[in-house]
Amino acid sequence: MVRSMTGYGRKEDSRGAVRLTVEIRAVNHRYSEIQVRLPKAWSMLEDQVRKLVSRYVRRGRVDVTIAMDGKSQTASAVEIDWQVAEQLVSLSRTMAERFSLQEPLGVKELLLFPGVLHTKEMTEDSDEAAEWLLDQVKAAAIDLLSMKEAEGKQLYADLSGRLAQIEAWVKELQQLAPVGIEEYQTRLRQRLNEWASQAPFELDLARVAQEVAFFADKSDISEEITRLESHCLQFAKQLEASEAIGRKLDFLLQEMNREANTIASKANYLPISHLAVEIKTELEKMREQVQNVE
Q1: Model pLDDT, residue 236
Q2: Where are the alpha helices (DSSP H) in the chain?
Q3: Do 260 and 280 form a contact (C-beta atoms < 8 A)?
């Protein structure tokens, strides 16, 4: 299934006085990159959020923003880092003895030193709250996926239609290839007959056949047509694949464009040249669309 790399998912929910909002934005990117922004109190869930979202995103840059509004059911607890405090007291006593200081380090001064006191938020039913947050992230990711798949259907229809047109043009090329050689042979004979009427000479049919054979070999596009057909089949097959296909489609389009360029350079027959240009133009339109395929 074709998916777009761009999309947006959102989920809001309330529990008591707390409102939780999850927004997920996805844009084009060569690889998969997921950035998570969480409230500080829930930063420990960042890896879980990233892994959860990655189930719904195969390629692209994704920004996950989680916001909480309102008063949560939390209580603050003050903790003392006794190891730091003991080191400070020991250093204070050593300095007092060395420099004959009269005022030792007091409790008030000790508590003001960075690292001695820690404020920790103790959340009631934290496991339940974390589960609630992850549930909302999942719902937002599903919303994002729905949008990516909806856009993917449009991309699939557009790419399939353009591919069908290119396949039709390739069939025309197969029919035109021998016609171009016949046209060249006819023009060569006409020119030689015109020259013979002006300055009589004997027409060397073997030489004419040799020139036509040389032209046919130089302008032969059968290999390019075969490869172009194969790439079209591979492209159609990838459109039905379930994994990330964007980079594979882009590679196939590059190869198809290479074959079209070769056909255009070999062409000595105007209808073939026109078709090669049409194919290249259509491939460029397809490549623009493929840049948005996951």
Answers
A1: 97
A2: 46-54, 82-99, 107-112, 126-198, 205-218, 222-239, 246-266, 270-290
A3: yes
